[in-house]
């Protein structure tokens, strides 16, 4: 009788151990599956401007080569949304020219943006702009859901969308007769005349 009781106890203990081991294994498998379910980080090109992206906060992946001066950046630390997102990331030091993931957060427009040379990128100055953004490392904040696909705004002006001048206006000054190319939504870009430098004015 005593032998039977001991055998039953041993069987029960064995079953409990099996269940514990199985449960631990299942939990590990679940943890692995959860880790695999990371959200898809959208990738953008070097020429994408922050103002074209409607999302107020997002994580994106930049390609290599965004240090190129053709990708214009306006401001220092806080950038006008007319800037290249990835160009600003390189200027700020968050990325190098090899690309990578960044966190972008939209903030209010500034009364002025100061240009500077940093990390191989020369940013330009602006008198003011309606919207700004800040770039940081791609560390997700707790409680924030980041989009796996970005929402882009559409250009109202066909000329602005095509990057062509809808009209050219002249603004004489004491130093030089400046001509401005009007691109779409009141964006006026100074056309180089004489020794004049490139200016961008917004109204």
From TrEMBL:
Q: Where in the cell is it found?
A: Secreted
TM regions (residue ranges):
6-26
Which Pfam family, an example, fits this chain?
LCCL
Q: Its GO CC terms?
A: extracellular region
For this protein, the record's Gene3D superfamilies field holds: LCCL-like domain (2.170.130.20)
LCCL domain: which residues?
Answer: 40-133
Ordered alphabetically, the record's keywords are:
Disulfide bond, Membrane, Repeat, Secreted, Signal, Transmembrane, Transmembrane helix
**InterPro entries referenced in this protein's UniProt entry, alphabetically:** CRISP-LCCL_domain (IPR051957), LCCL (IPR004043), LCCL_sf (IPR036609)
Q: Which PROSITE patterns match?
A: LCCL (PS50820)
Concerning SMART domains, the annotation shows: LCCL
PANTHER family this protein is in?
A: CYSTEINE RICH SECRETORY PROTEIN LCCL DOMAIN CONTAINING 2 (PTHR31331:SF1), LCCL DOMAIN PROTEIN (AFU_ORTHOLOGUE AFUA_5G08630) (PTHR31331)
Q: What is this protein called?
A: Vitrin
The organism encoding this protein is: Prolemur simus
Query: What does the record give as the organism's lineage?
Result: Eukaryota, Metazoa, Chordata, Craniata, Vertebrata
């Amino acid at each position: 009788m005593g032998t039977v009781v001991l055998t039953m106890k041993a069987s029960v203990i064995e079953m409990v151990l099996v269940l514990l081991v199985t449960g631990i294994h299942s939990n590990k498998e679940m943890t692995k599956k959860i880790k695999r379910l990371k959200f898809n980080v959208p990738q953008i090109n070097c020429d994408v401007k922050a103002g074209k992206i409607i999302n107020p906060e997002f994580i994106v992946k930049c390609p290599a080569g965004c240090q190129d001066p053709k990708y214009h950046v306006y401001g220092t630390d806080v950038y006008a949304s007319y800037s290249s997102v990835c160009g600003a990331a390189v200027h700020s030091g968050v990325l190098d020219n090899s690309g990578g993931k960044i966190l972008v957060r939209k903030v209010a427009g500034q009364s002025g943006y100061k240009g500077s040379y940093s990390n191989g990128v020369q940013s330009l100055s602006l008198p003011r702009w309606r919207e700004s953004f800040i770039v940081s490392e791609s560390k997700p904040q707790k409680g924030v859901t980041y989009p796996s696909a970005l929402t882009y705004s559409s250009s109202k002006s066909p000329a602005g969308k095509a990057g062509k001048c809808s009209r050219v206006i002249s603004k004489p000054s004491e130093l030089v007769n400046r001509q401005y190319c009007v691109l779409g939504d009141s964006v006026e870009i100074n056309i180089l005349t004489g020794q004049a430098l490139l200016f961008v004015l917004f109204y």
